[in-house]
Each structure stands twice: as structure tokens, then as C-alpha cells.
Design a protein that fits this description.
about 240 residues; mainly alpha; about 0% strand
């Protein structure tokens, strides 16, 4: 009798799950989410359709599982880019946080739009949708923290609620840019924008982010809230 049957079974299940997700990700990337069937995924994963549904209840759930991993990766890349960007330029920092997610969507606009639908309009009790919404909160919080840092740097009072509202607005700009990609889903993002009024989408996104941050910082620096610049306060403490 095996000494650790449960451990071996768990490992086998984890390996099968990883294989299913790998196949689903490959087929979604090659053919598009809308055209791929669960039967195709099961066949390429070397399992029966019934076995597939033990790991994912539907194709929609598979999409969430696959793209949650993608979203987690683009958030990590955004945090890396932001850490390499000067904190004195809050627009560049905020843009660095959202750019990788937009850039990835350019490669598969139809899949990105499908993920957005499930993320924002899926069932309220879906486990993997809750995971996706947690990732949204992670990105919004990262943007909000950078905006509060920018307010402190200019010597203004930090209003966490105002910073959170601005952070959500930056996130909304990112999602609007991605949703526009689905207008002509059979084209890549760059091709689609070349055929519309959105000739330079990333420049537009950066411009919108700049407006949001300018408004937030102007409000933080209003006469009722203005304080000494952070650098001056530091100097006085060391005199």
C-alpha cells in the first residue's frame, strides 16, 4: 500500500489542472476564446470532457482561471516598471502600473474583452471572479498609494478617500482603452486603432491619466489643505 496516497493524488490533480490551463491558454491565444470549445480543450489535454468539468465548471470559468494568471503577471510587471520610474513624476508612475495590462490586451483584444465581461458582469459567487476582483483591488491600491506619495511630496494634506477615487479613475481609463479594442476584435489593437480616430491610444491614455492626477493634486494642494513642502519640513528638522 502506498505510504502517502493522498499526497500523490493531490500532485496528480495539480499536474492535470496545470495541463488543462496550459492547453486552454494556448488555444485561447491561437484561436480566440469565443471559437474554442471545451471539447477541444479536453481532447488536447488528454482527458474526457467530464474530467475537465471537475477542474472548471464551464469555459467561462476556464477563461477566468487563465486570465487571472495573465492579469497577475501584468500587475507584477507594472509594479516593476513603476519601481524603476522616478517618484517625482506621478503620471509616469501611474502609467507604468497600467501599461502592461493594456499592452497585453493588444495581442488578443477579443480575449481581453471576454475577460472584462466575466470580471465585471459575471456571477457574484464565482470563486475565480472573486480572485479577479481581488487583483483589481491590488492594482487600484498600488495606484492610490503612489498618488498619496505624490501629494506628500508636494507638501499637501493626504486625503485617502480622494486618492482612492483618483486611483479608481485611472483604473477606469485603462479598462476603457481595453474595451475599445473589441470594436474590431479580429484585428490587433494597433491595427484597429490605425483604422479609427484613436490613432495613438497609449498617448491618449497617458493624457487622461495626466488630467486625473493633475486634478487630484490640485485638490490636495488647495489653500485649505496646503502645507509646507515635504523637502522643506525635512530640512527644518535637521537644522
Amino acid at each position: 500500500m502506498p505510504r502517502h496516497p493522498k499526497g500523490r493524488r493531490d500532485r496528480n490533480m495539480a499536474q492535470k489542472r496545470d495541463r488543462i490551463l496550459s492547453v486552454a491558454a494556448s488555444l485561447f491565444a491561437e484561436h480566440g476564446y469565443d471559437t474554442v470549445t471545451t471539447q477541444e480543450i479536453a481532447a488536447q489535454a488528454g482527458i474526457g470532457a467530464g474530467t475537465l468539468f471537475l477542474y472548471a465548471a464551464s469555459k467561462r470559468e476556464l477563461l477566468l482561471m487563465v486570465y487571472n494568471g495573465v492579469f497577475r503577471g501584468t500587475i507584477a510587471e507594472g509594479l516593476h516598471r513603476a519601481s524603476a520610474t522616478t517618484a517625482a513624476d506621478p503620471v509616469a508612475v501611474a502609467y507604468a502600473l497600467i501599461a502592461p495590462t493594456i499592452e497585453h490586451a493588444y495581442g488578443a483584444p477579443g480575449n481581453a474583452a471576454a475577460y472584462q465581461r466575466e470580471l465585471f458582469f459575471g456571477g457574484p459567487r464565482q470563486e475565480h471572479r472573486e480572485e479577479a476582483l481581488a487583483l483589481v483591488r491590488t492594482l487600484e491600491s498600488a495606484i492610490t498609494e503612489r498618488l498619496m506619495d505624490a501629494a506628500r511630496e508636494q507638501g499637501s494634506t493626504v486625503d485617502p478617500a480622494a486618492a482612492a477615487l483618483a486611483g479608481r479613475s485611472v483604473f477606469a481609463v485603462m479598462n476603457l482603452a481595453i474595451s475599445r479594442l473589441s470594436v474590431v476584435p479580429e484585428l490587433s489593437g494597433q491595427e484597429m486603432f490605425a483604422k479609427t480616430a484613436y490613432a495613438d491610444p497609449l498617448a491618449q491614455v497617458r493624457g487622461q491619466v495626466a488630467q486625473i492626477i493633475a486634478g487630484y493634486l490640485a485638490g490636495a494642494a488647495s489653500p485649505l489643505k496646503k502645507q509646507q513642502p515635504a523637502r522643506e519640513r525635512k530640512k527644518k528638522r535637521h537644522v
